[in-house]
């Protein structure tokens, strides 16, 4: 086996000293400084038919007052239309998951008296 002349010597830890503390700080620093060659993009994978169904469901839900209020609030925060529809789809997906998990029938939210 050939050894590179640029190989660094192996450093053995001092007994009783935390070995990974300095390494974890170094790794965190490297991760903060690292840049991606391909850039930072949202994931494009997933089940396309399901994504499309949730997107269309969220778009159709804009006729409901609660969804319309949520949409308007997100737009006021500065989000674009498609990003806001995706947020609404995610919210509807969370509600669907909760309904299935709890074995309950969906009930329209009522305004709190006050």
Describe the structure concisely:
The protein is an all-alpha fold.
Helix content: 40-55%
What's the shape?
A: globular
Helical element count?
4
- The percentage of residues in β strands lies in under 5%
Question: Uncertain spans, ≥5 residues at pLDDT below 50?
Answer: 18-30
Radius of gyration: 25 Å
Give the number of DSSP strands: 0
Category from helices, strands and their pairing = mainly alpha
Largest β sheet strand count, sense and barrel closure? none
Round the mean pLDDT to the nearest integer and report it.
76
What order do the SSEs take from the amino end to the carboxyl end, as H and E?
A: HHHH
First and last CA, distance: 79 Å
Brief descriptors of the model:
mainly alpha; 4 helices; 114 residues; globular
3D architecture notes:
- The protein is an all-alpha fold and 114 residues long.
- It has four helices and no strands.
- It has a domain at 48-102.
- Helix 3 crosses helix 4.
SSE topology:
Blueprint: H1 19-33, H2 48-60, H3 65-76, H4 81-102
Helix pairs in contact: 2-4, 3-4
